[in-house]
Design goal:
The protein is of the alpha+beta class. The chain has two helices and two strands.
Length: 85
């Protein structure tokens, strides 16, 4: 195998390792789920319906007064209607 091919394989392997390992290293920084002390919660619109009850329990637990959803309308949004807290 030539020197050039070895360099190519090493560089390619390093790139693949970088793109596979970096997301795992950054996940704890990008997926912060700690409360900020606000009375507002933002919920992603793509969350599966089976998780909505768990989310509502958290909303009740922390006493959020305002709920915002992002994304498209979902079947589960009826849980987030007025007066359901």
């Amino acid at each position: 195998m030539s020197k050039r091919m070895k360099r190519f394989l090493v560089a390619g392997s390093a790139l693949i390792a970088f793109f596979v390992l970096v997301p795992f290293a950054l996940f704890p920084l990008l997926a912060i789920t700690a409360t900020s002390g606000s009375d507002t919660v933002v919920i992603e619109g793509w969350i599966p319906q089976e998780r909505i009850q768990q989310i509502m329990a958290e909303i009740r637990r922390y006493g959020y007064k305002r709920i915002y959803t992002t994304g498209t309308i979902r079947e589960a949004t009826y849980y987030l209607g007025t007066g359901t807290l």
